[in-house]
Write a sequence for this structure.
């Protein structure tokens, strides 16, 4: 599987789907979730909330609204909005997102720095968790992963984690 680490906006990546670092309620108020809802439309949130609760460690795929994606993959890193999260929850969410995207037949997926916004997780810990999930994932359809962030320091955390991954 090809992995790229990019400085960029999750809302405009050249991929088939993107991961929303969700909460179990499916509410999309702040952070990356709020940005996706504002850009893609309220129908994304309505569909996610209709399928809630989504336990941490599971993921669902919804419409992408007016965004140019086939699917938005909602992978909760926390049970309720604005809760702090942990490295273990982020790793679980990343694994669930990869499984869900693969089951949806997506060929490419954009993954932001799950848990580093309202979840309050240190970018280094989040990067380790996400990179670990990506490096160990073996799917059927997914061929390309873009790890992305708007902050250069988070992009660097992804790069360090990728270079230091156990299989490197």
């Amino acid at each position: 599987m090809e992995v790229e680490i990019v400085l960029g906006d999750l809302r405009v990546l050249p991929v088939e789907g993107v991961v929303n670092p969700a909460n179990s309620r499916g509410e999309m108020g702040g952070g990356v979730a709020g940005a996706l809802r504002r850009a893609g439309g309220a129908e994304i949130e309505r569909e996610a909330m209709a399928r809630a609760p989504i336990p941490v460690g599971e993921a669902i795929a919804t419409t992408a609204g007016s965004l140019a994606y086939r699917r938005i993959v909602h992978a909760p890193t926390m049970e309720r909005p604005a809760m702090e999260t942990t490295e273990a929850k982020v790793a679980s969410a990343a694994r669930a997102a990869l499984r869900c995207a693969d089951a949806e037949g997506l060929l490419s997926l954009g993954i932001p720095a799950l848990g580093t916004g309202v979840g309050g997780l240190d970018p280094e810990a989040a990067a380790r968790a996400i990179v670990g999930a990506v490096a160990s994932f073996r799917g059927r359809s997914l061929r390309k992963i873009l790890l992305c962030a708007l902050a250069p320091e988070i992009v660097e955390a992804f790069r360090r984690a990728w270079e230091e991954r156990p299989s490197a």
Summary: The chain has a mean pLDDT of 96.
